[in-house]
Amino acid sequence: MEVGNGVVMLRTQYLAGFKEESKASYPTVPRLDVNCPATIDGTIEDVSKTCDPSLLPALFNDVKVCGKCGKPCAFTMDTCNSCGASLADVEISKSENVFSAFLFGVKLAAKGFPYTISLRRETDEVMIMDDLLQLTPCHLNGIPKQYYIPDWRYLLLAPAAGLKLLDTLEAELWEATQPFLRSEAYRKALFRGDVSDEEIRKNIICSFNFPPSQFQLHVQWLVPPLTPFQHYMAETRNHFHEGRGFPMSYVRKLLALGEKYDVQKDTPVEQIMEHFSKKGVDYKTEWTEWYDKVCLASTLSFQNWNTADFQYVVEDGKVFDYSVADGKVVLGAEAPDASAKALQDKDKAALQNYGRPYTEAGKPSGTYHPRPLEPKMGPGGYLPWPPADA
Q: Across the beta sheet with 13-18, what order do the strands follow?
């Protein structure tokens, strides 16, 4: 595969160790210049003790908490999608619904860190922020503010209203992408060749996860290219998993049929997939085409990573020095003192736009929700889905 600057390497390898001297010229895009205080001086647990019981399902998730890094992962996952540790023996437990905490302006997580966000756009209907995991330099989440919708399946309760909501979310996500695309330095550094806005829009990795890690509907919006390590993860089928990743195109086709489907909390997603396959929308076909054309091909054709900016190449979990000869990466000696995981963590911080500009201490900055919801079900808080007029 070509990584940029005319250099090719194996798809089983990835660049690592973004050099300090390259960080000064790497283009970043600042979040919205908003710095609002918390509205609720406490935690989600504090909210749960005083709120109406009808709100409780919106405050917590069913998850597997990684024993290695502590990340709450979807309860169906066997491997942590942050550190790669096994979740096979981890029991399902409850975690704080982070997106509800963001929307209500809750100050702190149970572990004590602030529930601030890297805000990109905010309207009466939608909140858009940088995703903490940052698989691409522009990786956003689009969240509806008006309704409590645990996951994408519930859109099937009101197909027309669901399509309208997705139209709004996608339009606002695209608007939130514009500061990135208007940056000449960003475009030159990240995209190979003269790529048009139309080409970028067609190749955005746009999807839902089921089960989600946070039980409030959110659109995953990844503007290619993936970062080097994350592209390697996609190449090895460790992202956007079949059966968990649901392309926006697939969900839209289901809703476009106009058929209401009685979704309950325990409705198996496989049951939904089988039902609509008989209606002519086959999940496996849709997912395979999406994965191959969007998740892999788009980032391969767009990525413009300069090998001169990276110190190492990683293969089979081992870190190597390398050189470039005749336009190809050539592995050198193994660097036994270099950790692939440590390099991955440093590269994420260097290449992401989450929390830009960083603080004087070199940490991501953030804000609380400028117009938080009231912690309740009803006007001023979460409205129930589907809408009354659906």
A: 2-4, 7-8, 328-334, 318-325, 310-315, 13-18
